[in-house]
Queue: 3 jobs
Job 1
Amino acid sequence: MNRSFPALRGLAIILVVLNHTIHMTMSYARSQGVAAVPAWQQVLFYSLSGLGIFAVPIFLYLSGAFFAYAASQDNLKTNYRIVWNNLKHVAIPYVIWSLIFYLEIYLLHDKRFTLAEYVKHLVVGYPFNFVPLLIFYYLISPLLIRAIRYTGWLVIALIGLYQLALLNIVLPGTLGFEFPAQMGVLAPPILSSTLAEWAIFFPLGLIYVKRITSLTRLIERTRWSWLGLTVLLYAIALLDVLKVIDLPLARYLAPVAFILLTSVFQRSAFPFVKQLEVLGKRAYGLYLMNLLLLDILLFAIESLLPGALTFYLLLMPLLFVLALVIPLWVIQRAERLRQPLLVRYVFG
């Protein structure tokens, strides 16, 4: 297993919190009448928040890699025991924090839904949209591992092609043309949008472990090309968001290039690696809590000091730090209770 993976997971949660902080702060600021931000600020915000496109791919990729590492035997019964153990520690915290979030938006924003709507939100992943996709992949991962064992990269290629097709169905014209309406039958219920954006990454984690030698040799020889490709695609994606050009596909290709590059990352190359590993160990709990905490903090500012939102540039760094530090403190305090099962079922 790549020793850089815990730090990489820590980097991913930082990107998530950064993205949420910028989007939510600006949403609250606009609700208080803040005018359109200057062009240079738009570029800055899109450049920083846009890094979030790498976060979920990292989480899915690492989840696939860790599962493949644990499921070393080609035995469906044994591997499904591993699936059940992983699912408990993903699904139960997800339900707990989703319900807390629904209570929070009801109390603070008077957002209420019918029972059927609450169930629908849980199933589709509101607000934690990638979790149902992760659960789906855990459920089929023993079958994917078996397929990869016998067909290798063919499985990955087929999934990648399906993702491209689905992307063009969900967002018509992404590939530069539109499919006939009949192609809509390929879009599954519930998971169509998340599969369109992230289908390839969990399987890439599986094949990283099962075909590690061939993959890392290729990437190692061409790592600077992959780095340049990642930067280029991200720059194109940024220009697309800013309406300078029209190439939306770059947003979905940049994370693929980056994830392939991570296979040759070295732990020693990460700055503040120990701190990143601390965050990475608790990344799922931080992911489930940060959005809720940001909403509470911004609601408090809006209610008590609404004029402060005009200083959004000063608020963002403070909110970003608080959205990382407070959930981390909560999890670490819970760990001191020496009830590991409780911690796993609440924070993952």
Note: The two ends are 21 Å apart (CA to CA).
Job 2
Amino acid sequence: MTKSIISNSSVYNDMKVNEILEKINLIDKNNYIQLIDEILLDYQLLKEYEKYSKISIRKQHGIYYTNFKLAYQITKEAMDGFNKEIINSKLLEPCVGLGVFVIAYLEYIDKHCSLNEIEIKDVLSNIYISDIDNLAIKLAKKLISKFIEVKFKIKYKIKNNNTYVGNVIYNDNKVHTVKSLFGENFKFDIVLTNPPYRNLKASSKEFNKEDYKEYQSYCKQVSKLIKKELYLQQGTINLYKVFLELIYTRFSADESVIGVIIPSSLLSDHTSSSLRQYMINNSKIKKIYLLNESSNEFNSITQSMCYFGLKKNDISDNVEIIDVETDSEFKINLKNLRNIDSYSNLIKLTSNATSILNSIHKFPKIKDIDDIHNLRGELDLTLNKKYISEKVTRYPLLQGKHVKEWNIKGDTKYVDNSFFEGKITPKKSFIYSERIICQQISNMSSNKRLKFSKINKNYVLGNSCNFIAVKNNIDLDYILAILNSYLMDWRFKLFSSNNHINNYELNELPINLDNKYINEIIEYSKEIQNGNLNKIIELNKIVFKIYNIEKKHALEILDSYTDEYANLLKESMV
């Protein structure tokens, strides 16, 4: 933003900076790791103390510093795939902070490359850094210079021409390129960074009233600019995703290597799908390491993180997802994943889960079946509130709270006839046919999340519901039975990352429309709807059968359910 609203004690600021400078001067070959980590923590605390309106500068800019050990591991993951001449290769740290990734890079070179003094100076001359924080840049240069002196016995300071101070994403209403940052038209061979993590969205809890309006306007302006120039951004802009796209599409050269640590939401969040798919379709990523919310690698972070190294313009057949806390590994075949999931969500899949998924995804997904329509409820409960009435009309209103599994419960309101005046939209036309419906919100901790029920024609659905409608020879009772099965619920829960039942997630469910048990399944479905709930057991046995699920895999699926019918089903299968 153009306006600074920082309030802090300059005395405290000066004191902390002097402490950091003293520690830099104390660094030697025996204590550098310990002191670098102390310095990083000191500076993070300094930024916590500085305020922008009601929040700290650290939170405002999404700053979280990486410790030396982790920075080195990320660097190694990236550099182990590097095959260019190191002395002629250019490194960028676009969010340099105090320079820990530059130092980790130099540590890697010291351990893995045999270079003479002239070659080391060539390497140093190809290091470029940038950051929005002018003080951080100044301290980074001092810290990096001290490390170079200790490690290589060379006095060297990163050139001003290799340094950019300011907003690294955009300037003068244009998203940055390498040329706009450093004045030359080239690309980087190596990019290592821990980008800031912050949604570009104003919150009234974080700002005073006047600051809130200004920041809200700023967010809208910048988001519009970013989405105009960067094509992989979806939903609310988050700074880490902007940096990832900039690094990949604007800053890095062909066959370059990139090492990053970012929120693990990149791996499975729907609004990250374009960026995620672009990266895995155009990169070789061997391993992705997961850090959970309780990881001690960071201070003041309450979200799960991931880190990895990749090589551009190469393709992986497989990627290993490694849970650092449990030391467990999950090997994902990316070709299989693309068939299983249209959004290439990178989740922890066991070999058994992969076998089940491969089996059920031999059948078409809902989105690929022309005669199945999967949509959100047609009446917006907020925008169309004026049409909701206590007066009885021919159009009862159903909301998500009314929907149970296999039936509808709760008090009913109605929709005024004026809702239908004028043009009947395609979605409204489904009101005049039978449908099956589910809630649009279902808590992730629920035993079972998919709970569908069949409704008669003339019911109007609020947008807290989703619905399925069918045409031609597809039987609605059959689809109801399949979607209420434990197998489909297990498939849904495996890839769901929030409390919503999204239509795009339902679209991914595979439907077997060609099997000899269809009529039997329809009869079970009707009996259950009429109150014979014991048929749930037989129904689910047949569903496992038509999807070719082995007994051991079916029991593994059922182990995640604790309700009465799941337990009875397990007992009947043992």
Note: The CA atoms of residues 79 and 257 lie 7 Å apart.
Job 3
Amino acid sequence: MANSTRRSSRTRQAEVRRRAKAARRDKRLAARRYRTERSRRRWHWDGDGLITLLFAIGVLAFAFWVGRDTYLLQHRGEVVPATVLDLSTGKNARIEVRYTTKAGQTVQDSTSNFDEATVGGTVEVVYDPEEPTRMQATDWGFDYVLPGLLGAVGVAALAAGGNQFYRRGKHSA
């Protein structure tokens, strides 16, 4: 009986050693596969990636421009009354206004940043004293929703475009 117990104990120990050896072998093989796969990753030229990166740069530049205008009007803008000269409605509604800056310069310009206006009526506009043609109606508001959304789209496109240049293997999708 003792001999049988000793043999089964040896068998169990041998089985444990065999499994440990197999686990070490599997780990080595997995590491080798990972290194091989990693070495196949290469930076390469991709036309779609270039187009995506150019799109991202354009969207980010537009987001910066819109955000900068909003910031400048919000922080250094002057509010003056303006006369509505023309109102075009439809998909791209615009008003053309004439106003006099606090420095005495008369400016005539158009904007699509307004809520309500009537031809011949008066609306208040906020303009940048350093660039009087940068203006919008005061009822439009100063929020950063559009620049924020455009910035998020631009960053996502930038990441996607950059990722298209770094692929695994020759034929990976």
Note: Residues 64-156 form a domain with the OB fold (Dihydrolipoamide Acetyltransferase, E2P) fold (CATH 2.40.50).
